[in-house]
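pinging the channel bc i need a second pair of eyes. not urgent but kinda urgent?? the chain im working w is below, pasted from the shared doc
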Amino acid sequence: MARDRRVALAALGPGCYRTARMPPIPSAPFQAPSPVSAGALPLVSVVVPVRNEAPNIAPLVAEIEAALAGVPHEIVYVDDGSTDATSAELAAAAQHAPLRWLRHRASCGQSAAVVTGVRAARGTWIATLDGDGQNDPADIPKLLARAQAEAGDILVAGWRVTRKDSWVKRRSSRIANRIRVALLKDATPDTGCGLKVFPRELFLRLPAFDHMHRYLPALVLRQGGRVVSEPVNHRHRTRGVSNYGTLDRLAVAFFDLVGVIWLQRRWKRPVVEARGGAEPAPGA
């Protein structure tokens, strides 16, 4: 048993587990007193995964608060093993905003951070947002309204029509998008946009794996849901340094695509045409 645990730790480094024996995700340690701690549950939880984004914490939290003024909400940050002052900035921001935050012992990747955040969230709807400030929180209400109008198992994906990235990044993304659409048939022009809105319950039914955040449209369609795209604003990064490089993305893209294709082909969605017997009581 101890040897298995050491092997699991060695696979991804201390604090990251690749096996099924994942430790339970804690319920918001480091939670500071804030308005979200009392009253009714929030309508939407804004989940923001970050790693070494200390300069972006306070400005982005202020923008989220302004965008969702009048909407019952909470902000859930997940610090993915930052080595800068991100944790200190989050603790400070939590004193003045409905913010909860969790910290990974070691960096386990953006997808793991999103999963941690969604599991800890309390809202009916989830809005994901990159923590680098390039996504505009002012677009969240528009995506939330579209999701509520569509209802059901719906994913509203942001579409960065005018991207503010380098030519190399834009060009490589276009090529990757064309290949992905051709192979996965997800009919989504921009799966790489971090701004998305979906029901929390839907996300929790999806298979979780590294880099899954880049394939949410395909995973939602596999689950029998629907996917729509909404044009959103995109901004230049003005603070901090990107955690990704073009080669980093390309190096794993092939294996990710093969894995998602396998998931699509190995799942059959039954159509339930009849039910019988007494329905269970709520909460049973």
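so The longest strand covers residues 44-50. and Residues 1-11, 20-35 have pLDDT under 50 and may be disordered. — does that match what u expected or am i reading it wrong
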